[in-house]
Specification:
Helix content: 55-70%
Shape: globular
Structural class: mainly alpha
CATH architecture: Orthogonal Bundle
CATH class: Mainly Alpha
Organism: Helicobacter fennelliae
Number of domains: 1
Pfam families: Fic
Distance between the termini: 30 Å
InterPro entries: Fido, Fido-like_dom_sf, Fido_containing
Oligomer: single chain
Largest sheet: none
GO molecular function: ATP binding
Protein name: Fic family protein
Order of helices and strands: HHHHHHHHHH
Mean pLDDT: 94
């Protein structure tokens, strides 16, 4: 795998990742915009008149998120409560007045067999979550164990459900952040795999979740490699033209 610096500085790949993150993560939550429409909003700032205001903001916010993600990774910021709230603040910009703030009232997850963490316990629960993930990743001995630690923590994050809304989008972003930090291809859950993904969140076999994620990461690695190679080819072409 290329170095984190090479990946983060490959503008084409990071924009491509941003479009796919925005499209699939919001689609899992019900956003109906196509990937092409999502790309138009993020890459061209084009407002589709068919889009509702909410759907537009849900997608557009990933354009604001990308530089925050890159800066945080470049500065090697560890996951903590403040960074998680910062990510949520960008993801939920213009969508909720409490963007970037932990929930103040109890919330429930439709169809879930658990009750999310109570509001007054969220700060300490999320701090423990960050510490546990950090411990597991430091003690992982191979990529598979690191992926399992990230996925297990993702399931736990969704059970904490620390925000009034946007928990799924934030949680999936944290998976991507952790993957980058640990030299793993980012994990983008396709909207077409929503049912399988939800089944894992609701208590599915973590080993199967790992296999599912690893297949997606293999495909992501190939896509990443193509963008990196394309950049090298373009650079060589410019050198030959001089």
């Amino acid at each position: 795998m290329a170095t984190l610096h090479e990946i983060l500085n490959n503008n084409d790949y990071m924009l491509d990742l941003c479009v796919r993150m925005a499209h699939h993560s919001t689609a899992i939550e019900g956003n109906t915009l196509s990937q092409d429409e999502t790309a138009s909003i993020i890459l061209d700032n084009f407002l589709n008149l068919k889009a509702s205001e909410r759907e537009f903001y849900e997608v557009r916010n990933y354009r604001f998120l990308l530089p925050v993600l890159i800066d945080s990774l470049t500065n090697k910021e560890l996951l903590n409560n403040e960074l998680i709230k910062k990510f949520h603040n960008v993801i939920m910009r213009d969508l909720r007045d409490d963007a970037g703030q932990f929930k103040k009232i109890e919330n429930l997850v439709v169809g879930a067999n658990f009750e999310p963490t109570k509001p007054y316990l969220v700060p300490s629960a999320l701090k423990d979550w960050c510490d546990n993930l950090d411990y597991k990743l430091k003690n992982a001995t191979n990529p598979k164990e690191r992926v399992e630690a990230i996925l297990h923590s993702h399931v736990s994050f969704e059970k904490i459900h620390p925000f009034g809304d946007g928990n799924g989008r934030t949680g999936r972003l944290l998976m991507i952040y952790s993957c980058f930090q640990n030299n793993l291809p980012p994990l983008v859950i396709p909207k077409e795999q929503k049912a399988k993904y939800i089944s894992f969140l609701r208590g599915g076999d973590i080993k199967e979740f790992v296999l599912f994620a690893r297949e997606l990461q293999i495909a992501e690695q190939k896509r990443m490699d193509k963008f990196l190679q394309q950049t090298k080819n373009q650079s060589r072409g410019k050198d030959l033209d001089r």
